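hey m, so remember when u said the tokens were messed up on ur end? i reran from scratch. heres the input so u can diff it against urs
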Amino acid sequence: MILRIAFVVVATPVLFAIPVLAEPVIPVFTDETATSGITTAYQGEWEYMVGGGVSTFDCSGDGFPEAFISGGADPSALYLNRSTTGGPLTFTKADAAFPTGITGAYPLDIDSDGILDLVTLRVGPDLLLRGLGDCRFEDATAAWGFDGGDAWSTAFAATWEKGQTWPTLAIGTYIDRKEEAFPWGSCTDNHLYRPTGEGYGPSIPLTPSFCALSMIFSDWNRTGQAALRVSNDREYYKAGREQLWHLDPGQPLREYTEKEGWKRLRIWGMGIASADITLDGYPDFFLTSMADNKFQTLATPEPGTKPVYSDLAFARGITAHRPYTGDDLKPSTAWHPQFADVNNDGRLDLFVAKGNVAKMPDFAAADPNNLLLQNEDGTFVEVGDKAKIASVKTGRGAQVVDFNLDGALDLVVVNRWEGAEIWRGDASLPGAWVQVRLSQSGPNRNAIGAVIEVRRGEAVERHEITSGGGHMSGSVGWLHFGLGATDAAEMRVIWPDGSEGPWQTLPARAFYTLSPGSEPAVWQP
């Protein structure tokens, strides 16, 4: 008999200290829709199932941003901001007539006269409205040689190319309106409008085109040369894809190809938000879709790298692919995305406007807007319901902006068939903040294409100033930066011509105008 003795070895566990991450502070918004004075709804049937933007910009000269609400089949409206610092959000409707058919609008100082103009996208001819001051506009479409076409316009972006005094405009379009019975595959051409002196010549078709719903110019790999990114709605294109276009001076327009690293991606592309979330010095992109939202980061972040992106939406917790409240668990439909630090803790958060296209039975009907706060480890947590902004109306365009200039970001969302909603931000937040606006002489007065760098300890966060993206919604004005527990911001500006401003220390809870070669100018509301 052989005696077998078993020895049991009990391992003593080795304990490692795991740092406890602080929960992000949840801002609680106040719904002021009923008392704000904003009543415009985005109306219309089949031809207005996409679009519905809101633009914010100061046209009165008092520093407080106005709101332009797209009305679709009904007239659009400009709302003058009558809020006081820290007070309720209050607006009055401007005595100005705007045409019907507007799907979205973007503020832009096209002629660089120091007064913001308005690019209006329409079901029908697009219009360029020249700002006259005091929130008055005139139609300058013909005077500026701009051919507004007669398409269903649904995307916009602008940039200043080197050596040009006027901006290059990109306008994306949707499906052929004459093909209502069978629209699939009828995507109409997107166009690039390059200036010819003080005005525009014939447009350049961006062929092939695949029903664009968002566009953005971005120097995505830091070569000093912007490219045009286009997000397309796969619901209607055939053999289409997401696109990135070369915009090299003096060269024919051409798409980036798979040989150059641009991977084939097909989504129901509806909106683009860009920000340096990963703190690698390069813009990351959040792309809204129907259930399949993407968060793309450069696989190899270095100057001149190829456009190879990794999708980190699941890893970061920002898939936002289905409702997080209620019992409607069908896939979500996401529209306008926007990164912003809504709780002033020094980390960018993400807002997403949601809403069913119409009555699509395979997608959620009760689809609340998302508010995703960024944790210390770079992941995100949903707090839309706790923040009191989880509306289940049929959302479209939006803006996260400080309407009453109290340092707390507010929120406005355009809804299809129902009035726009507006929420006042939480001014009781403990975190500090600073707000800046860029101003330079000559062309490109608002410094589109500049980069603001913010130094936070050893990390440097880059913010690229763009015109475009989102879903039919744009903004020009104060740029908000949360600072957390710090009492000042370390900041510098890399201007559109490539010149680097000095690092400057800006004391918190104040507004500054930054200009090349000048000290920061404090501005008082």
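this time it looks ok to me. The chain has a mean pLDDT of 95. if urs says something different then somethings off w ur setup not the seq
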